[in-house]
Amino acid sequence: MTISRFTPPLDYLQAASRASLQSFELTRLNHAANLRNEIAALIDQWIQETSEAMLARWMLDNHDSLQSPSMSPSEIVRSLVNPVDAFFPQVDPPISNIVPAPPRYSRPSESLKSSIVRKPHKQRQSAAG
After folding, report:
1. Signed CA dihedral, 56, 61, 64, 66: sign only
2. Could you read off the pLDDT of 68-89 as tens digits, one per residue?
3. Backbone φ, ψ for residue 122 (5° rounding)
4. Minimal CA–CA distance to 45: which of 57, 53, 56?
């Protein structure tokens, strides 16, 4: 795919009427929208091709483990139809008589002021003394 450089026809655009300019604008916007749709389709195709190539690479890397499946084909199909049943066995319902523990409350502690013993202040001697 080659990309051609587009140089707008400046002489035409300068001499064009308002209706011609509007028509030119709509034509360019339409072309841009079409290109965007083509790009989106190409990106989707690119993602599809890349993911298939990655799957083939994974299968090549794990070819030996894929040859002998531990489950029968019917079990594999059943696991694809009901994946939860295959990987998570039935568990008994939780016990309903579990009572949550009461909230913890801190014991009222003694006043901090009564436990702090302060040293007596020395009186400062004045310089005049």
Report:
1. negative
2. 656 677 777 777 677 665 555 5
3. -80, 140
4. 53
